[in-house]
Design a protein that fits this description.
Number of domains: 1
Distance between the termini: 15 Å
Strand content: 5-15%
InterPro entries: DUF1002
Number of strands: 5
Strand order of the largest sheet: 2-1-3-5-4
Keywords: Signal
Organism: Heyndrickxia vini
Number of helices: 11
Largest sheet: 5 strands, mixed
Oligomer: single chain
Order of helices and strands: HEHEHEEHEHHHHHHH
Protein name: DUF1002 domain-containing protein
Length: 305
């Protein structure tokens, strides 16, 4: 038994050494501070209603340690009107940092303060941004207080616009409608954020495959997806979906260009929905490993008395 415990301890030390060595290598190869000269500095956009203290907190959350390494702008209620014909009386707190990437590198969304963004998930942001035409960027979203998260979308649009991105206003508006419908549907009985994201993503994937030519084609795709995902919507909510995706069809949004990114969103959601299978994550696995070692040691000494 003692030999067995010794082996377990040696294995644990060996694995810990490998892990620390990997971290050291990753740190030595870290290029996170490198600026892509093609796209310029990362852009940080702050909600205009943030107080000075709240703005400082957001800087910390978005890892803005050197203002010379980023371009800082403010998103205002006037921007809400400019980009999505929104309410000029809105209060904006959500903030974002956007770093543009090379074509084909994909869209990565990180909500730095998930407890404070109460209605929008990272997959919802990704879906809406792909609709708007934002395809290759790292996007971080943060808020120092609890907010729905809707206004961050406009901040991302402005940051992308100021960074030289070419976004279509009609697409931005329909993307905002999509986000609004997604958060509304997520509140319905029997629905949640992940189910809604799965529905919207799979509808887009099917549109990319079928290239529907009529509103009736859109209706069939939506009805088929509602059936296959076993989702029950009221006639009114179903019609809102039809209206939204028919708008996208009329705008000639080519989801075929972002099929792989839609696939990534779909896979992320499926993994989340299948999380009940018991994947506890890496650190939980490490904790369980050492728990077994210490339990073996305890059992050994317990057997001596």
């Amino acid at each position: 038994m003692l030999k067995r415990i010794s082996k377990l301890v040696l294995i644990a030390v060996f694995m810990l050494g490998i892990g620390m060595n990997s971290v050291a290598k990753a740190s030595s190869n870290d290029n996170s501070d490198s600026i892509n000269e093609k796209f310029g500095l990362p852009i940080v956009v702050y909600g205009e209603k943030l107080s000075a203290d709240q703005k400082q907190k957001v800087k910390e959350l978005l890892n803005v340690t050197n203002s010379s390494q980023v371009k800082e702008i403010t998103v205002t209620a006037a921007d809400l009107v400019k980009y999505i014909n929104g309410d000029p009386n809105s209060n904006l707190y959500s903030s974002a940092k956007i770093t543009r990437k090379e074509k084909g590198e994909g869209l990565a969304i990180s909500i730095v303060t998930p407890d404070n963004i109460t209605e929008v998930t990272d997959q919802m942001y990704a879906n809406a941004l792909l609709t708007a035409g934002v395809e290759d960027a790292d996007v971080e979203v943060a808020s120092p207080l609890k907010v729905s998260g809707h206004s961050a979308l406009v901040g991302i649009y402005k940051a992308y616009d100021k960074g030289g991105g070419d976004l279509n206003k009609d697409r931005m508006e329909v993307a905002n409608e999509e986000l609004g419908l997604a958060t509304d549907l997520a509140k319905k009985k029997g629905m949640d954020q992940d189910k809604v994201t799965q529905l919207l993503t799979e509808i887009k994937e099917e549109i990319a495959k079928q290239n529907p030519a009529t509103k009736e084609d859109i209706e069939k795709i939506i009805d088929d997806k509602l059936k296959s995902l076993n989702i029950q919507l009221s006639p009114e909510d179903r019609q809102l979906l039809v209206k939204l995706f028919d708008k996208m069809r009329n705008l000639d949004i080519n989801f075929d260009n972002v099929k792989s990114q839609l696939g990534d969103i779909a896979n992320d959601i499926k993994k989340k929905l299948e999380d009940v299978t018991g994947d506890k994550g890496f650190w939980q696995g490490v904790a369980d490993f050492f728990k077994k070692i210490f339990q073996a040691i305890a059992d050994f000494f317990g057997s001596l008395f």
